[in-house]
């Protein structure tokens, strides 16, 4: 048995004998909701992973490597002061609910108000969600997630791409347009200045997302 992961799969060991035990990965395929996630996730015996859902179908993906983890951390530190100045709060991975059978766990997010311990964050409370693109998540981060976030009405979507092999860092900030689709609001590569006044002021070289 395998669980779909963007452009790849994570193998999930099948039991040696069919014991007739309830297997949520099989029995709940296509019908996942936050209520069911609260009840059955994480799956016992699986390694630590992200659990996301698109139209009732569970998407399981490994946690990011150190390059993306550091980039997400730096984005949080850069955004925290100006976002807090507007009364917003910045967070690492959390559950953003996009519909009754859709949710994502973005690499970082800016909420319009403090989460105060909530497990499920409604899309209406998310001002910005951000993803650090990896080879296994390229299609999801470039196409699937932006489309779902736009449909849910999240005003900003940020995409970050870093590569130590290429000494490359790129930031693209998308803003929801009048037609309900994202448009490029600001973009920059390492060596240039990423600058925006909305949703809050930011000005820095994307190279700061690469460790020294």
State Rg: 18 Å
**Tally of DSSP β-strands:** 15
Shape: globular
Overall tally of domains: 2
**Roughly what is the average pLDDT, rounded to an integer?**
89
Main beta sheet: 6 strands, mixed
CATH classification class of the largest domain: Alpha Beta
What's the SSE pattern? EEHHEEHEEEEEEHEEEEE
CATH architecture heading of the largest domain:
Alpha-Beta Complex
Which regions contain 5 or more consecutive residues with pLDDT less than 50?
A: 1-17
Number of helices: 4
CATH-wise, what's the superfamily of the largest domain? tt1808, chain A
End-to-end Cα distance, whole Å, is: 41 Å
- Portion of residues in beta strands equals 35-45%
CATH topology of the largest domain: tt1808, chain A
The share of residues in helices is: 10-25%
Strands side by side in the biggest sheet: 5-8-10-11-12-13
Pfam families: Uma2
InterPro entries: Nuclease_put_TT1808, Restrct_endonuc-II-like, Uma2
GO molecular function: endonuclease activity
Domain Putative restriction endonuclease: 40-203
In short:
The chain has 212 residues and is α+β, with helices and mostly antiparallel strands. It has 2 domains: 2-62, no CATH class; 66-209, tt1808, chain A, CATH 3.90.1570.10. It contains 4 helices and 15 strands.
């Amino acid at each position: 048995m395998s669980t779909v992961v963007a452009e790849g799969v994570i193998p999930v060991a099948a039991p040696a004998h069919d014991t007739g035990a309830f297997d949520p990965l099989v029995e709940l395929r296509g019908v996942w909701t936050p209520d069911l996630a609260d009840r059955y996730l994480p799956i016992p015996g699986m390694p630590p992973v992200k659990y996301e859902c698109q139209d009732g179908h569970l998407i399981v993906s490994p946690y990011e490597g150190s390059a993306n983890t550091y980039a997400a951390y730096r984005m949080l530190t850069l955004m925290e002061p100006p976002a807090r100045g507007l009364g917003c709060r910045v967070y690492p991975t959390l559950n953003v609910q996009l519909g009754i059978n859709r949710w994502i766990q973005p690499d970082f997010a800016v909420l319009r108000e403090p989460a105060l311990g909530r497990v499920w964050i409604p899309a209406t409370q998310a001002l910005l969600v951000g993803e650090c693109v990896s080879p296994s998540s390229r299609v999801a981060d470039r196409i699937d997630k932006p489309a779902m976030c736009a449909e849910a009405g999240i005003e900003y979507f940020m995409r970050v791409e870093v590569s130590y092999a290429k000494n490359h860092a790129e930031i693209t900030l998308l803003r929801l347009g009048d037609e309900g689709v994202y448009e490029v609001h600001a973009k920059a590569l390492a060596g240039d200045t990423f600058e925006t006044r909305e949703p809050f002021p930011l000005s820095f070289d994307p190279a700061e997302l690469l460790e020294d």
